[in-house]
Amino acid sequence: MTLQQKLAERKLKQSAEAARAKLASVPGLSLEGFDANPELVGPADLWRCFSSHEQIAQFRIPDRAFSDTGPEILQQSLALLGHDLGALCFSVSGHGDLPWLRTVPNHSFSLFQMFKAVGDFIAMEPRSGAAVCVMEDEYEKLVFVKPTIGRTGC
Q1: pLDDT band at 41 (very low <50, low <70, confident <90, very high)
Q2: CA–CA dist 131, 19 (Å, integer)
Q3: DSSP secondary structure string, the chain?
């Protein structure tokens, strides 16, 4: 293994540890591990999809109203995933090069708390392929909901 490959491997390992640490801080979420299932579209593809100018956010929440309206809107978005306390896969901003991080949320889990803990993220329901992305824009939070994701992204 070359020095460059070793450095790349080390950087990836550090990125994985940082992503795990971010998600471990979210109330109501148990981490299972990374899921590199080839049947799921990759996180990097979805980050590109949701951040493209072709995508239109289903919800645009002004920063000043996020504490008041954000919890309800994000709970509705979680329901659109078909979330039934089964597994959810997450990718957090800055770590899109990693596979999905598989989790099991409990009854106290909320996407609002998730955003407060980790910032921008994508949540995917692995059985249906439904996805929610929450991103911070200049003066607002953008919420994208995709009931189904193709094998290559949006």
Answers
A1: confident
A2: 19
A3: --HHHHHHHHHHHHHHHHHHHHHHTSTTEEEEEEE--TTSPPHHHHHHHHHSTT---SEEEEGGGHHHHHHHHHHHHHHHTT-SSS-EEEEETT-TTSPEEEEEE-TT--HHHHHHHHSSEEEE-TTT--EEEEEE-SSEEEEEEES--BTTB-
Report the pLDDT averaged over residues 75-104.
83
Q: How far apart are CA 140 and CA 142, in angstroms?
A: 6
Return the structure tokens found at 18.
Answer: 């940082």
- Compute the distance between CA of residue 145 and CA of residue 37 in angstroms, rounded to an integer: 22
Taking residues 20-42, report their average pLDDT: 88
In the structure encoding, which two tokens stand for residue 110, read together?
Answer: 């909320």
pLDDT digits (tens, 9 = 90+) for 118-143: 999 999 988 888 899 999 999 999 99
